[in-house]
UniProtKB/TrEMBL annotation:
All residue ranges annotated as the CENP-V/GFA domain in the record: 6-118
GO molecular function: carbon-sulfur lyase activity; metal ion binding
Matches recorded under InterPro entries: CENP-V-like, CENP-V/GFA, Mss4-like_sf
Originating organism: Bordetella genomosp. 10
A Pfam family assignment: GFA
SUPFAM superfamilies named in the record: Mss4-like
Protein name: Aldehyde-activating protein
Similarity remark: Belongs to the Gfa family.
Superkingdom in the source lineage: Bacteria
């Protein structure tokens, strides 16, 4: 597996995915969802994200501008990723680095972003 390719998923194992992502660009956000959920995030082009299993077990939550498709496991409630677009229309996956195998997301020294004011 390439150095920047990871496997991830939810707590119960119903949802699994693989992603090629630069975890060195990790961020934490202070918006009304990310802060209380404790997300440490990195972003990957959608063609570098592959849902392996559990599509039927995902449920969706949208808030604020309803642009981000927050997907979480309906069994255990863990949100391992979300789908969205950049300002120029590129499709991306926002990956919760806490859900990646072999990654200590809190040790990555993520950059703080002000999502609350966006």
């Amino acid at each position: 597996m390439p150095e920047n390719r990871y496997r991830g998923g939810c707590q119960c194992g119903a949802v699994k995915y693989e992603v090629e992502v630069d975890i060195g660009g990790a961020v934490v956000c202070n918006c009304s969802r990310c802060k209380p959920m404790g997300f440490v995030l990195a972003f990957a082009p959608r063609d570098k994200f592959k849902l392996i299993s559990g599509a039927e077990n995902l449920t969706e939550y949208r808030f604020n501008t309803h642009q981000i498709q927050h997907l979480f496991c309906r069994t255990c409630g863990v949100q391992g990723f979300a789908y969205g677009e950049t300002k120029n229309g590129d499709r991306i996956a926002a990956v919760n680095l806490n859900c990646l195998e072999g990654v200590d997301a809190r040790a990555l020294n993520p950059t703080a972003v002000d999502g609350r004011s966006a």
